[in-house]
Amino acid sequence: VQVVESGGGLVQPGGSLRLSCAASGFTSSTSAMSWARQAPGKGLEWVSGFYTDGSTYTADSVKGRFTISRDSAKNTMYLQMNSLKPEDTAVYYCGYLCSGYGATYVCDYWGQGTQVTVSS
Predict the structure, then answer these.
(1) Whole-angstrom Cα distance, residue 89 to residue 32?
(2) What is the pLDDT of residues 67-118, one digit of tens each?
(3) Burial class of residue 37 (count of CB atoms within 10 Å of its CB; 0-12, 13-18, 19+)
(4) Is 75 exposed, middle or buried, given 0-12, 13-18 or 19+ CB atoms closer than 10 A?
(5) Which of 33, 23, 3 has the alpha carbon at shortest distance from 107?
(6) Which DSSP state fits 63?
(7) Alpha carbons 77 and 19: distance in angstroms, whole number
(8) Which of 8, 12, 19, 33 could lock onto 79 through a cystine, CB 3.0 to 4.6 A?
(9) Within 10 A of 20 (CB to CB), how many other CB atoms are there?
(10) Among candidates 90, 108, 112, which has minimal Cα distance to 99?
């Protein structure tokens, strides 16, 4: 399984970006996928994603600003990020074949990440 993120870049505060994540190889259209990010000097933070039952979660830190969506037929997931803030600066990772809930939520495969920098 290969997981590839794209869409990162440099954006001014208040701007928008759309991240994409594509999974290929031995994949399933029903596999759960998720976004996580890691800011400089900080640990991994779950951002938004899908559970195996199709429901979604979104971190309080991005609720109302970030929207997750997916195209199951293409094994592709998107993260629309609006009203970006400097504290959103991080490497954003896509996880594939995720399972569990809350503290037990894990993903078996990860992409290399895409850098998002929010700065004026």
Answers:
(1) 25
(2) 999 998 888 999 999 999 999 999 999 999 999 998 889 999 999 999 999 9
(3) buried
(4) buried
(5) 33
(6) T
(7) 8
(8) 19
(9) 17
(10) 108
